[in-house]
Amino acid sequence: MSSFTQIREATDQDLDGIVRLVIHEEMFAPDQADMVTDVLGDKIFDEDVIFIVAAPSVQDEILGFIFAEPRATADRVWEIVMLVVHSDHAHQGIEVELLQRIETELTDIDQRLIVIDASSNSEFDQIRTLYESEGYDCEGRVRDYWEDGDDLLAYRKHLFQ
């Protein structure tokens, strides 16, 4: 990761850059930008959500972000809902920094478990390898969850082990 990159809490001023990033990475279509703005904007302002960005210190570009929210029906369990890093900056350590920042924040408030739902599709091999290298265990599979042939893989990490 560049020494000019800050890992920090997201603010409302980051929202446009976050939306540009998810559109650029083709997670959503350009005509869905308003919907993405509404949904992610709500998450940034939600006090129960931890939303972290990676951004250069001198620009408004967002290089990556991660957000997690509590699972309401479980004891101190959080779900990482999205982890996105700009493809031009992937594999430079930003993903690890974002994951570690979430883990630190959750540990600091005595939370115990993080879960992540991932796709079994081969295009997500690298992100699953990242999760595993950072101590996340694949605990289960739901076949054909995302679509036929694309399973949900459930990852977890206990924060106090």
UniProtKB/TrEMBL annotation:
> Hey, what's the signal peptide range on this chain?
none
Q: Which domain of life is it from?
A: Bacteria
A GO molecular-function descriptor: acyltransferase activity, transferring groups other than amino-acyl groups
Pfam families recorded for this chain?
A: Acetyltransf_10
Gene3D superfamilies, from UniProt?
Answer: 3.40.630.30
N-acetyltransferase domain: residues covered: 5-161
List the protein's name: GNAT family N-acetyltransferase
Identify the species of origin. Corynebacterium glutamicum (Brevibacterium saccharolyticum)
The record's section on CDD domains has:
NAT_SF
